[in-house]
## 1
Amino acid sequence: MTELQNGNGQEFHSVSASGEKREHLYKVLVIGDLGVGKTSVIKRYVHQFFSQHYRATIGVDFALKVINWDADTLIRLQLWDIAGQERFGNMTRVYYKEAVGAFIVFDVTRVSTFEAVAKWKNDLDSKVQLPNGSNIPVVLLANKCDQAKEGLVQNNSQMDEYCKDKGFIGWFETSAKENINIDEAARFLVTSILTNDKENPVDRDQDKDKIDLDAHDAGESEGKGSCC
Ligand code: GTP
Ligand code: MG
């Protein structure tokens, strides 16, 4: 197999005997209130790991998930794990730049975190759009579903209505602890991102602005840092 690289050292295509494999690098945001489980969802998704121990994220953390989507497509999801304490601040605009999809997470045991969902969605929609001007696709995650639920999330049809109303492409009850629905939610979001990308391909040069997480094709990696 031959790796073709651009000047930046990021490979875009792998050429094998069967032909060319398309690679996509997508920036995906993970936002929501303090302690709802954003970092835990990412750790479960990328590393199959969960800890009860809570350590608040400071600023933003990064993780990379490499997905062998199909025989012809490899996807690198650059996950931006934004601290709940960044809440609608000036930094969110910088963090959101060039994202093509997002998860908004709330905690089913704390109604206040659900009430904040609309604020996170408004913040997002006001600060980032796809190149064609439309909102980026956002999936709502009702996390900690292994625990007793409070409020709206007890009623599925009301949640469906809420998501339609607020412009979410869908919602999933998830548990980082019990590994429930996280892969499914990610697949759903990536499907939407791929559809948008096919309809309005993003200029490849924009990928150069993204942080190189140096995955070395290992499947996944993680980094910490402040942004831009
Ligand atoms: P900030 O970084 O402060 O914004 O928080 P966060 O959203 O990243 O939350 P984090 O992933 O650190 O999780 C907060 C706490 O909730 C930790 O103690 C986790 O163990 C716990 N937690 C996360 N997901 C779940 C879950 O699905 N079920 C249960 N029972 N606990 C969870
Ligand atoms: Mg965190």
Note: Residues 182-199 form the longest helix (18 residues).
## 2
Amino acid sequence: MRILVTGGAGFLGSHLIDVLLANGDSVVCIDDFSTGRRINLDHHRDNPRLDILDHDVTVPLEIDVDQIYNLACPASPVSYQQDPVRTTQTIVIGAINMLNLARRLNIPILQASTSEVYGDPIVHPQTEDYWGNVNPIGVRSCYDEGKRCAETLFFDYHRQYGVDIKVMRIFNTYGPRMAPNDGRVISNLMCQALRDEPLTIFGDGSQTRSFCFVSDLIEAMVRFMATPREVTGPLNVGNPHETTIAELAEMIVGLSGSESALHNLPLPSDDPRQRRPAIDRARQALSWQPTVSIEDGLTRTLAYFRERGI
Ligand code: NAD
Ligand code: UDP
């Protein structure tokens, strides 16, 4: 098969491309390299089954492929808030362009949606039938509402035009190839720990997240694409092991052997208080569950940042 991956030079996209190429497929990666990095795909430089196009998803694309994974979008709060108007454009216009392509070619398309569609959730853990608690006018809204609108578009293209859609709500995922400077908590804390700098804890560190290692996430993504047409999602995918940010920081200090202390800073506005996926639907539909423990995943990620000389 020839498979289109938008945002393929990013953290998740590059791991997805590794798996698709290893499965024997050909891949077309499109990326504008705004948050992604060519180095993430450098190890495939000589692979004739990978084409990399410098292309912006907000511009329509005519290309012949068999499947589309739509991942193009800045994912860290720091990056998506840098140019919020562009973030909404990337998500919404990008979704329309990719859905039009999927419709014309009559091929399946998977959307990298997010746990942010639940906003600052009141229901805990979050199930797919929860509609969320999202501020429509806050600093995170460009991303949260953009991704909600993309989900709307996916389901309308499905109902109106019969497009084969797969909507995957991704919860916090981490691992090698996260950009060291993209502002997400695991990359920030690891780089600070390895430099023996204070670890920046926003608020008192009692807010929770549930972190999934990248290999588990990509396995679910590829399985989702292989499901029959009637499996549209939305499906939560993540690791239900929940931790506070303070506990995460302590783990990173312990695993890295760092001398760093914790340093509390103000909590950014609309920062969700708690987040944990209910993954019963994904377990059933994909015969899948996460297998990498947080200690193992953090150790592998630390090794990556160490090797890079952070
Ligand atoms: P990332 O920033 O590493 O990757 C995003 C990629 O999209 C980058 O390579 C970037 O250059 C590219 N991109 C951005 N705007 C583009 C545009 N207009 N045209 C073409 N390419 C563009 O982030 P990631 O963590 O790999 O996230 C990938 C996808 O998964 C995103 O859609 C994100 O919203 C979603 N997601 C990720 C997580 C997570 O924890 N990593 C959680 C929920 C959802
Ligand atoms: N966070 C933190 N220190 C940092 C970066 C983030 O305490 O240096 C917190 C942030 O406020 C949030 C959590 O860690 O509560 C996860 O943040 P991230 O930006 O990784 O993802 P998201 O908020 O989108 O889940």
Note: Residues 80 and 86 are 8 Å apart (CA to CA).
